Amino acid sequence: MRLTELAHQQISPLIKAGSIAIDATVGNGFDTLFLAESVGRDGRVYGFDVQPLAIELATLILTTRKCADRCQLFTIGHELMATHVPQNCVGNVSVIMFNLGYLPHGDKSITTQPLTTLAALEQAFTLLQTGGILSILSYRGHPGGLEEFRQIRQWLNSMQAQLSPMLQQDSANPDGRGPFLWLMQKT
User: Fold this and answer.
1) How many CA atoms lie within 13 Å of 54's alpha carbon, on the beta-carbon side?
2) Residue 102 contacts residue 142 (beta carbons within 8 Å)
3) Cβ proximity of 94 and 15 under 8 Å
4) Whole-prediction pTM
5) CA Rg, the chain, in Å?
6) By the 8 A CB rule, do 81 and 22 touch?
7) How do the pLDDT tens digits run along the chain, 187 residues long?
8) Which neighbouring-strand residues pair with 167?
9) What DSSP character marks residue 121?
């Protein structure tokens, strides 16, 4: 099972209809769609990506699946998410998903960066409700990906008192440069 599917499988029973969720890295829109379907008609999803193509692809998928009305997507970096979600979201978001790296089938020179990702993780922690889920899928194989992974791991270690691990799953890639998934719960 792919780690994206594993994340969806683990998160699915924990999202309630009417919840607020954030896709911090919209990409092709699959996590955004998963969240939109999970929160239902009364829920809300906020999505962020620096690439207009990602927002276009996600909008197409959401519209096709009749979920676009519950989503608000922004063509900005995830490090600015806290300034673009309503104030009433602070401490009330049930799930925040990060799928780091680059846009598949897009410009592979545009990647997530450790500094902006760490800033986004700090904001995500503030936005999450107690018991909320933080999903981080880190790809170590692209230039800068391994350093981003190391800094995320260091940040998570510093947050041990506030974030409890639900799942930590390495890919089956023998060179240790494949994706790695963390599912953490705010305590």
Assistant:
1) 30
2) yes
3) yes
4) 0.96
5) 15
6) yes
7) 899 999 999 999 999 999 999 999 999 999 999 999 999 999 999 999 999 999 999 999 999 999 999 999 999 999 999 999 999 999 999 999 999 998 887 888 889 999 999 999 999 999 999 999 999 999 998 889 999 999 999 999 999 999 999 999 998 777 777 899 999 999 9
8) 183
9) H
